[in-house]
Amino acid sequence: MNNSNSENLKISSSPGNFHYGYVIIICCCLMMGIDVGLSVSCAGIFYQPVSQSLGIPFDSFGIYMSVMFICSSLFLSTAGGLMQKFGARKTLTVSSAILGLDMLAMGCFNALWQFYVAGAIMGAALASLLYLSFPTLVNTWFRTKVGIMIGICSAASGIGGIIFNPLGGVIITSFGWRAGYWAFGAIILFIITPVIGLLIRNTPADKGVAPVGESTISTSESISSEAPKNEDGISYKEALHMPVLYTLVVFAFILMACSTFNLFIPKYVDSMSFSIEQSALAASAVMLGVTGGKLVLGWINDRNCMLGVIVTTLFGVFGLLLLILFGHTFPMILLGSFLFGWEYAGCTVQTAMLTSHVFGRKEYARIYSIISIALAAGGGLASGAWGVLARATSFATAFYVGIGMLIAGCLLGLYALRVAAKRIKNLKIA
Question: Is 379 or 20 the better-scoring residue by pLDDT?
Answer without folding.
Answer: 20
